[in-house]
Amino acid sequence: MSETKYTKDHEWIRTEGDVATVGITDYAQAQLGDVVYVELPGVGRTFAAGESLGEIESTKSVGELIAPAAGSVVEVNDEVAGDPSLVNSGAEGDGWLVKLRFSEQPELLDEAAYRELTA
Amino acid sequence: MTATDATATGGGAPTTPLLAVHEAAGAQLIDFAGWQMPVRYGSDLAEHEAVRERAGLFDLSHMAELRVSGAGAAEFLDFALAGRLSAIELWQAKYSLLLAEHGGIIDDLIVYRTGETDYLVVANASNRHAALDALTARIAGFDAQIVDETEQTGLVAVQGPAALAIVSAIGLESEPLEPLRYYRALPGIFEGEDVLIARTGYTGEDGFELYIAAHAAEDLWRALVLAGEAHGLTLCGLAARDTLRLEAGMPLYGNELSLDVLPAQVGLGRVVALKTKGDFVGRAAIEAGPADEAPVLIGLTADGRRAPRAGYPVLDGDRVVGAVTSGALAPTLGHPIAMAMVEPGSATSESLTVDVRGTQLPARLTQLPFYKREA
Hints:
The structure holds 2 protein chains of 2 kinds.
Chain A: E1 5-6, E2 11-16, E3 19-24, H1 26-32, E4 35-39, E5 46-47, E6 52-58, E7 62-66, E8 71-76, H2 78-82, H3 86-89, E9 98-102, H4 111-118
Antiparallel strand pairs in A: 1-2, 2-3, 3-9, 4-6, 5-8, 6-7, 8-9
Chain B: E1 3-5, H1 19-24, E2 28-32, E3 35-40, H2 44-53, E4 55-59, E5 64-69, H3 73-80, E6 93-99, E7 105-115, E8 118-123, H4 128-138, E9 145-148, E10 153-159, H5 163-167, E11 185-190, E12 193-198, E13 207-213, H6 217-228, E14 233-235, H7 238-247, H8 283-288, E15 296-301, E16 313-316, E17 319-329, E18 336-342, E19 352-356, E20 359-366
Parallel strand pairs in B: 1-9, 4-14
Antiparallel strand pairs in B: 2-3, 4-10, 5-8, 5-9, 6-7, 7-8, 10-13, 11-12, 12-13, 15-18, 15-20, 16-17, 16-19, 17-18, 19-20
Helix pairs in contact in B: 2-7
């Protein structure tokens, strides 16, 4: 699996072949607090860059999963839909949200640049 | 006749005396009315549950303590506030409202009678200055003084079924706490410092609020943490406090209460002592009542996991009739709950929905509170 990259919308992305696994960062889950509801897109849905693919709700606020580039949804994490607390316990692991196939190259940050953004 | 800011420490944001303790405990801090306060220490759901099942410890030192004293203090408060404070007994507490001349709510507050001619008025942190200014403007002609003691006062709350056991175990010198009734207080001494021990709270559970000199707040906090170990006491932040008070159906200033809202609109008509006292600020407006079309507070519940949140439109059929003022996926109840202000004509409607970011969530009218502890 490739190196983890990040977006300025506090998502992480790991690309394997032409499929990108996407979730929200550990920083983002900490800001949200306890996640109590996750809404994920349908498999096969196509989307444009910047479109909202889903919602991550905590007791206190709502975060959106923003598409970093145009593409389509390959798979969603049904386990997270059933147990939203996985986003807290494993934001950058078991708490992944969607697998996407991009039709254009997303603009990504490396870890150092992302850390700087959240410092 | 005088308003004294006893702080005199000059500019800069006020600070809870427990800030270093919170930082050491790993609290996530937020700016609340200029104060850095814990929003959560870990999981706000776990903090919420701890208060319902065991006990939670809160730092509320940002709340404003305004001391009103003098031979005319009772008479002054009867004029300045909506309730009849002259009627409360020594060491009794009373929930009251500070009304504007037009009847709108400047703040909601708790008043403790701490002496024959001495009252402690506890206001919201966000309304500290508005409350102090309004009280100061009304004090002329009364034999009373008001002093802002906010920054000299630490306030911690222990809330939950184990609160009594915990507060009883820290070596407070006082009358026994067990017989102390809700909305009553007692004077006590903790390690040589005066403590006001109040059986009050904002969570829907049994509990205590302890007022102590700011410099002694840390020792009190540590003693409570130590005594609480055996009872599962959990440090709790403002996020849990908000979901706890919402489940308990308690209004929050800035959400349900504001300058634009008259008490009767939010079910607080009973707080205004129209019949038992003479003139007070806001009386004429309260007598006139809110406009016929003024929105009223309702409670809503829904199925599923999606929370209605403050500001979301409430619809009756396809017409917007109001907005959510507070909402959450209730941690204890497991379903969405909300308070909302709606047109009076829709306050009994069976066809209400909340617009949750484009999706219409069917909502049922529910009597407040949503949660009531077993007696």
